[in-house]
Amino acid sequence: MTIRNLEHAFAPKSVAVFGASVREGSVGRVVFNNIVDGGFEGEIWPVNPKYSEVAGRQCFPKAVDLPGVPDLGVIVTPPETVPAIVRELADKGTRAAVVITAGLTLENGLRQAMLDAAKPTVFRIIGPNTVGLMIPPIRLNAGFAHMAAKPGNIALLSQSGAIATSLIDWAADNNVGFSQIVSLGDMADVDVGDCLDMLAGDTHTRAIVMYLETIPNPRKFISAARAAAWVKPVIAIKSGRHEQSAKAAATHTGALSGADRVVDAALFRAGILRVKGLTELFDAVETTARFGPLERARVGIVTNGGGAGVLAVDQLIDGNGQLAELSLETIASLDAVLPVTWSHANPVDIIGDAPPERYRAAVETVAGDAGIDVVLVMNCPTGLGSPLAAARAVAALAQDGKIDGKPVLTCWLGEHTAREGRRVLQDAGIASFETPADAATAVSNLSQLSRAQRALMRTPSSGSEDTKSGREAVLAIFRRVAKEGRRMLTEPEAKAALAAYGIPVPETVVASSPAEVEAAAERLLTTSEHIVVKLLSKAISHKSDIGGVVLNIADAAAAGEAARAIEARVRSHAPQADIEGYAVQPMVVRKHAQELILGMSLDPIFGPAILFGAGGVAVEVMDDTAIALPPLDDVLAGDLIDQTRIGRLLAGFRDRKPADRQSIVAALNGLSQMIVDFPCLVSMDINPLLADQAGVTALDARIVIEPERVDEAGPNLALAIRPYPSGWEKAFSAGDTHYNIRPIKPADIALYPEFLARISPDDLRLRFLSSSSSFSDQMLKRLTQLDYDRNMAFVALETRTGALAGISRLSCDPDHTSAEYALLVRTDLQGHGLGWELLRQLVDYAKADGIERIEGIVLGENTRMLAMCREFGFSITNLPDGLGLAKARLQLQ
């Protein structure tokens, strides 16, 4: 359940307050007075059997006594009364309520009783234990906040009532207005994902800000956040940043994948900008909503104080910002308008006596540099120049907060003399900040949002042809482990699983005794200078900790001695541990290789998470790792590498040649694919993975599984992001032309221009209600880069040429009950059954996905489409809109 009936809460025309009171200091009195005093123009009915009148209005004993059906109920009564009130409201015809009352818990059964009362009519509940709901544009203040918020275009979702009221207070002092404020409370029913779905389509909301403490339904949350982030900035604070997952883990990854790092990865993939503080939250809203994400954020700084400019650079670099390099042409132009003592570099120090004319010339010149994406203008108060005059000069250049089409951020330092300058800049629509740190953070937010938006567009495959999948081989290994009642694979088993997914491993010989170790060493030493002997024990995970690994062995006898020494150390340090044998391997010596770690662990909220970073025995001490959510592709795997410090070392330095990046990416993709294929995976370490110019090799590996789940088929339902739905491909022939029908991929964007060029203007008009064949790059990305949890598109490709021949598309509502379909076949290929086949594939998919019905809007003159729909079993209804439209509907379930 997501947005069903929520419109009654978000746009009510009448409100009934249960527990409305005249008692001084009671929550019922505060809530009722807030609604009345706020100026809500709809009906307001107090409900309380104790009173005949509240605040001069007739008071009703029960819901059944109300003179009408309230759109929204507001409940402020004792917890034991709430389930019955919900049932009465539902019987009355109401479909939504804000339950401010606390104390409805799972332990006392009241929470479940309330939900049971709501379920038959899909009655929606915000709360319980909430400060309330505020909709400033309609002057509804349905809660006990200490003040009403002013109307605006920012929506606030908060899982903390105290934070919500604090932000309302802060916003009043900073002239910030809201379209919606929802205090979510305990989220027994309506959660943050539901609200994101409502706000994504709310035309009054320009940006969404969130205070999060927990995320109860991660796949729904990410899917809703992705839908919202497509169309407007979504910015979040997530508290508990330093809470760590349990350290007692069988793998390094379990210790390193702190919960907050996984939250970072999840918000990033959802296209959400994460900030750390409440003040930064609204600064981020101002800049991102005003300018949108930037592909690059190379900053040009103009300042009348060199020290302030240097400070801004420090803050910019600390935030992973990029200082632009001035072009020779820009330097020459600045030479012509600035004193000879100017800095001749970026930051452009125009000297402390700069008059407004100098500011204007410098800012205009810097903004015109093609190598600059953002302009930061600073002013320090001096006795030789007027901050107010400088502000007016900059403001005169700006249009919609930009100069020469580039975002302009300003920082007028000081208090008394700077205040008027900041006001002039803000009145001109220019973003203004009080400190260099705030301005640098704003630049960082623009570039971070851009990175998140790029990640938002990636939905990798659950069975990519680019990634080797040895599912059958690995399944056999997992079944053998499960049959023996084990959870942890031996090292040879783990390495065999990695090899099946295309991750290179050295040859491993399993020996059961020191004598067998000697024999294996003798053979391996014929092709290797040295060998390694490792302990095999299901009871000991980290072998190096007890001396269970011996390196650089040059002869067979020494190998046997090494095995005996390992056994002695095990008996001394862990006498209860079983020794299953020894792994004998060639000693891989790669002088300039970097030691990496790859791994996965299960996050309690977001499910499988992938770790990458610097590996080796000191991996926890180095703590140079990054986290991503699977599934990955080449772009996302590359982003993961680039988030680490060792990622820069892998690019090469001094005498070190660059490592084979594609081999590292392939290893990450192989790991990702194994996670997609096997829901039974619990955790994994590949440490170290050696990487150099020759490729990668996994020297050690640990894999833990859940034996009872070995035979569960993929794709893994625990993934927070639904992967590309492989398995929905089929062949189709029409005469001599053969087609491959499959789900759409992001790479299919390259096929659209030729496809659209071969659609007649009339067909375009029938499909898009417009004959234009011009589509923006952003629109094409939205058509090809889908969230498969809600949307699907099938493409038909000509087998011989690979050209796009037709598309069928499905867009599901957030409730996953109804979906809108669309169909378009290239004009020269119509009339041969391809449209019918694409529609059949769409219907089969919708049935398998549990969608109840599909429907579409068709122009009445599109007789061929309507005829096909009737043959397929659709019902056709003409819409009374005067536009000649018809609705085609097919009931599936």
Outline: globular
Taken together, the total number of domains comes to: 5
How far apart are the first and last residues' alpha carbons, in Å?
Answer: 17 Å
User: Within the CATH hierarchy, at the fold level, what is the topology of the largest domain?
Assistant: Rossmann fold
Mean pLDDT score = 87
Strand order of the largest sheet: 32-33-34-35-36-37-39-38
CATH homologous superfamily placement of the largest domain: NAD(P)-binding Rossmann-like Domain
Question: What would CATH call the architecture of the largest domain?
Answer: 3-Layer(aba) Sandwich
- In percent, how helical is the residue content? 25-40%
Low-confidence regions: 243-252
Task: Please state the structural category.
Answer: alpha/beta
| CATH class descriptor of the largest domain | Alpha Beta
How much of the residues is beta strand, in percent? 15-25%
Question: Which short descriptors sum up this protein?
Answer:
29 helices, 893 residues, eight-stranded mixed beta sheet, seven-stranded mixed beta sheet, alpha/beta, Rossmann fold
Descriptive notes:
- This protein has an 8-stranded mixed beta sheet with strand order 32-33-34-35-36-37-39-38.
- Strand 34 and strand 35 (804-812) form a beta hairpin.
- With 893 residues, it is α/β, with parallel strands linked by helices.
- Helix content is 35%, strand content 23%.
- Helix 3 (82-92) runs parallel beside helix 4, helix 6 runs parallel beside helix 7 (218-229) and helix 14 (387-397) packs parallel to helix 15 (419-427).
- It has 29 helices and 39 strands.
- The longest helix has 21 residues, at 436-456.
- It folds into 5 domains: 7-205, 3-Layer(aba) Sandwich (Rossmann fold), CATH 3.40.50.720; 293-456, Succinyl-CoA synthetase domains (Rossmann fold), CATH 3.40.50; 471-586, 2-Layer Sandwich (Dna Ligase, domain 1); 594-709, ATP-grasp fold, B domain (D-amino Acid Aminotransferase, Chain A, domain 1, 2-Layer Sandwich); 730-891, 3-Layer(aba) Sandwich (Aminopeptidase), CATH 3.40.630.
- The relative contact order is 0.06.
- It is an enzyme of class 6 (ligase).
- Residues 739-893 form the N-acetyltransferase domain.
- Its EC number is 6.2.1.5.
